[in-house]
Amino acid sequence: MAIVANPEPNATFFTLDHLNAHNVLEHDASLSRTDAFFGSNHIFNQTIFDESRAYWTKDVLDADQLANSKIARQINSKAFNPNYTFTASVENFSLGEVAAPIIAFGDISSSTVNRTLVEYFFCKFWKLEVVLSNSV
């Protein structure tokens, strides 16, 4: 699937640099990163994450709460980012991003996940990413 990230026609390979391009894995309206227009779009951003999780109003999150946080991020991003881009392929990836906490940590049959697990993952794992990227 990642071969499509290579801009060369009929490519048979990809590199990590291809995956690092804007709107491949990283995209505008992320739940935990700022838009590329505003700066470093590859590093966890606590302010953006706090904006997203403001829509997580219960101890057990459901698909609606996760979707609401995503829609709110899209609205905010579109309102303030003059270069806002959200293509159909980005939307497809983004749907997976919203479902990932339920798939990874939750109960798929009820489409729920413990909020604490999701917050722990974002706050501990992605903050570690910031520490590691600053130490290189």
From TrEMBL:
<dbReference type="Pfam" id="PF01328">
    <property type="entry name" value="Peroxidase_2"/>
</dbReference>
<dbReference type="InterPro" id="IPR036851">
    <property type="entry name" value="Chloroperoxidase-like_sf"/>
</dbReference>
<comment type="similarity">
    <text>Belongs to the chloroperoxidase family.</text>
</comment>
<keyword id="KW-0408">Iron</keyword>
<protein>
    <submittedName>
        <fullName>Sterigmatocystin biosynthesis peroxidase stcC</fullName>
    </submittedName>
</protein>
<dbReference type="GO" id="GO:0046872">
    <property type="term" value="F:metal ion binding"/>
</dbReference>
<feature type="domain" description="Heme haloperoxidase family profile">
    <location>
        <begin position="1"/>
        <end position="136"/>
    </location>
</feature>
<dbReference type="InterPro" id="IPR000028">
    <property type="entry name" value="Chloroperoxidase"/>
</dbReference>
<keyword id="KW-0349">Heme</keyword>
<dbReference type="GO" id="GO:0004601">
    <property type="term" value="F:peroxidase activity"/>
</dbReference>
<keyword id="KW-0479">Metal-binding</keyword>
<keyword id="KW-0575">Peroxidase</keyword>
<keyword id="KW-0560">Oxidoreductase</keyword>
